[in-house]
Amino acid sequence: MSKTAFFDQFANRHIGPSPAEVSQMIKTIGVKSLDQLIDETVPADIRRQDAIKVPAAQTEHAYLSSLQQLAAKNKVYKTYIGLGYYPTITPSVIARNIFQNPGWYTQYTPYQAEIAQGRLEALLNFQTMVSDLTGMEIANASLLDEGTSAAEAMALFFAQKNKRNKKEPINVFLVSDQVLPQTIAVLQARAEPLGIEVQVKPVADFELSEQVFGLMLQYPAANGAVEDYRALTAEANAKEIYVTVAADLLALTVLMPPGEWGADAVVGNTQRFGVPMGYGGPHAAYFACREEYKRSLPGRIIGVSVDQRGKPALRMALQTREQHIRREKATSNICTAQALLAIMAGMYAAWHGPKGLRAIAERVNTLAQLLGQSAKQLGYELASEHYFDTVTIKADHESRDAIRRAALSAELNFHYTDTGVQISLDETTTREDVEQIAGILAVDFEQDTIALATEEPAAISVPENLQRSTDYLTHPVFNTYQTETEMMRYIKRLENRDLSLTHSMIPLGSCTMKLNAATELMPVSWPEFANLHPFVPKDQAAGYYQMFTELEAWLSDITGFTACSLQPNSGAQGEYTGLLTIRAYHLSRGDVNRNVAIIPDSAHGTNPASAVMAGMKVVVVKCDEEGNIDIPDLREKAEANAADLSCLMVTYPSTHGVFETGIKEICQIIHDFGGLVYMDGANMNAQVGLTSPGLIKADVCHLNLHKTFAIPHGGGGPGMGPICVNDKLAPFLPKHPMVETGGEQGILPVSAAPWGSASILLISYAYIKMLGPDGLTDASRYAILNANYIKARLQEHYSVLFTGEKGHTAHELIIDLRAFKDFISAADVAKRLIDYSFHAPTLSWPVAGTIMIEPTESESMAELDRFCDAMIAIRKEIDEIAAGEADATNNVLHNAPHVLEWMTADEWPFPYSRQKAAWPLPYLHDGRKFWASVARVDNGYGDRNLVCTCPPIESYAE
């Protein structure tokens, strides 16, 4: 057995089954050894023959000691670069109780609303905060970053404008040259495959012609200036041209919000609301718009509904507009949000309240005015007299160099442009800091020190007619929790309403909810990693660069490829990036017509959505009765589209949880007709160390680091989706306008920051370093073992839909519930599992009426047995309904989940016992019982009566 016997090895903490348990499990499965199971599951012709080329496993203590040395290579200077990233103060009560709390960071996306009411409320707070501050009617529950949020707005309005105008679309999008440079680059990347013409120019040069469908403004501008865009917006509104504004939420506490001067959408980043810079992420972006666009709004929307009792309950609203439903008709491929970071930002607003936020904004602006006045006293000219936090001084080349040298000598970072120096202040800035900055500016005047201006600054350094006059954050949630006692209790109250990995396994197929170890997560909070701006000089981030280089090499070896980009900051973003590299490869060869993507009908919805976003046409290939790709149909489709074939998108092991033996033939067919193969890495948890995308002859894959490589799901995000590629595609890896990265012919950036959500890459780095080559391979082996153990225990009670040639599944399995459709639905089983204190498996995907189970390698046999016992007990409950022993409609499955209020009421409303409802198995008496805080939620009611901001507090007390 390859699981190491050394007690202090991380593999023994990460992998669930003990050696004694493994012996019992393989007996139950019907094999003689774990090696036999793996040999019969993974096809021999694609097995990896060498060990993974990563360092030998480190103990947790040794890893943390070595990482401290790596962290010391980063230099944490005082940074005033701005450009959408700011030093901030994370309130300790939020850092301790949310950011560093597994009860929050190990939650799954809140698709099962009854066990997610806490984070749903926290996300509703976030939406309310964004709507209030932007002056818009509706907001989503976060996007990936400001650049992609802006790109989503552009795509949304392009689709809106051309709903009935497909042949000759109106395709010009005007972008102010004062939009953040990284946002402009992401807009250009997104626009090109869609046929959108992005014109970047000064706002004064905008021509609102008939070919313009939208425009984008930055407020305040990239150089800090606060401009009056009301006349321009009024003209655009009159001509039915959509206006998107990228806005700073802190500035909107004192500036007139764009919603009040005619914007159609407002986008931006909430990083400065208590979320560390983290060298670029993760940070929650936001997207707010007019309510008329609610059915096109990208990302998740939290809405208010009612439960079975008629009491208020929250849920994810309007899911029918999402990519997993609309597939190739989707206008967005957004899957991962930044839920954990959005929750932190919303709590930051609740902690400070409207008065506190305004006080922070006014203090920042006061210090900026003192700096601006001092600069003028020195003889500098300001780029604008109206600014919020950023002072831009005009300076020639010689002066800029002198300031740069003096600033770096004092360990300060400013932003330098062709015409001057930008200095952005923030909530951590003090008067002493401003005095130091003024002294740096004085270097060009051969002065050692300079006294700050003593003139009392204006209340806010913008014209009175652009100052905010409307109230915001008036809901009690933003005016109640300003003491730590109250905030601590509020956070804990919400946490207690949610099921996370702290309660039980989360057996979601394709989502890989494995252990997120504390040692992996702790360094994300270290200041050497948390407090770096993504655009600091390279020598200040040497520790990060070493980590990037090593992680890219390890991931390349694990996947069997030669190069890696860490930039995509979600799985769907990785899909999109991989397809863009394929597109760039074909274009470089003059194959401009190659735009057909062949995709199996079982693929995750983001696959076809990403393909369409990358400018491709989707051709669907069938799967056979065994769930494998129908090879004759594939060959026929590839041959029919030979001249235009761009790629195949394939998931391996398959979406059905099987290692298809024909995978090499499948890839060869695509190559024979001039296409390339993109492999979706959603199921890499069954591949690492056993096989690889390179061995099956794919050309590119993305990796869900929040699945296989242990980054936590955080209630629905953050995620990371880097791509690994072969030699053909390496030259096309994405670049970035602010930092050197990517291939020689690299595509434009897909994320706002050069390495996406850089700080959480540390988690996967730790996972690899502490598991080492053997531990990484064992993670795959034990994931397969655990899945097949569940299969062995359940197959007498349920039909297992797909298996491999030897009767085994990969790391996940699909249970078919369609035989019971006359009595119950798959949703009934999902809700009933809550009563057994489990999260439901993946529901009705990839086959309607089924559940897909993935136990991961981190769960012990005891936990697997509890889950199997629950599923077997539910089967008996189904049989009782089928036999007429239980009422056809008023039964434990249809009424699940059962809330504590029913259990403690004087009158019991159901024909079965309280014991049967809430404590059907003995283990639920040992302290493991989880209570849903609401009864089954009425989804239809929530969509018919859409409410996406905090309702009156009285409604919660009904």
Keywords:
26 strands; seven-stranded mixed beta sheet
By helix and strand content, what is the structural category?
alpha/beta
Characterize the overall form.
Answer: globular
Unreliable parts: none
- Helical content (DSSP H or I, runs of 4+): 25-40%
Number of helices: 28
Strand order of the largest sheet: 2-8-7-6-5-3-4
Topology, number of strands? 26
**Biggest sheet layout:** 7 strands, mixed
Rg, Cα atoms, Å = 28 Å
Q: Overall pLDDT, averaged?
A: 94
Q: Beta-strand percentage?
A: 5-15%
Distance N terminus to C terminus?
A: 58 Å
Structural account:
With 958 residues, the chain is of the alpha/beta class. It is globular and about 85 Å long. The chain is built from 28 helices and 26 strands. Helix 12 (339-377) packs across helix 14 (431-441). The model has no long low-confidence stretch (mean pLDDT 94). Strands 2-8-7-6-5-3-4 form a seven-stranded mixed sheet, sandwiched between helices. A seven-stranded mixed sheet has the order 16-22-21-20-19-17-18, sandwiched between helices. The longest helix is centred in the middle third of the chain and has 39 residues, at 339-377. 35% of the residues lie in helices and 11% in strands.
Please render the helix and strand layout as text.
Elements: H1 10-14, H2 19-29, H3 34-41, H4 60-71, E1 78-79, H5 92-99, H6 102-105, H7 117-134, E2 138-139, H8 146-161, E3 172-176, H9 181-194, E4 197-201, E5 212-219, H10 230-238, E6 242-247, E7 265-269, E8 285-289, E9 302-306, E10 312-316, H11 323-326, H12 339-377, E11 381-382, E12 390-394, H13 397-409, E13 412-413, E14 415-416, E15 420-424, H14 431-441, H15 484-495, H16 518-521, H17 527-530, H18 542-559, E16 563-565, H19 571-588, E17 596-600, H20 606-613, E18 617-621, H21 631-640, E19 645-651, H22 663-672, E20 676-680, E21 700-702, E22 723-725, H23 761-794, E23 799-800, E24 813-816, H24 826-835, E25 842-843, E26 850-853, H25 861-882, H26 900-904, H27 914-918, H28 939-944
Parallel strand pairs: 1-13, 3-4, 3-5, 5-6, 6-7, 17-18, 17-19, 19-20, 20-21
Antiparallel strand pairs: 2-8, 7-8, 9-10, 11-12, 12-15, 14-15, 16-22, 21-22, 23-24, 24-26, 25-26
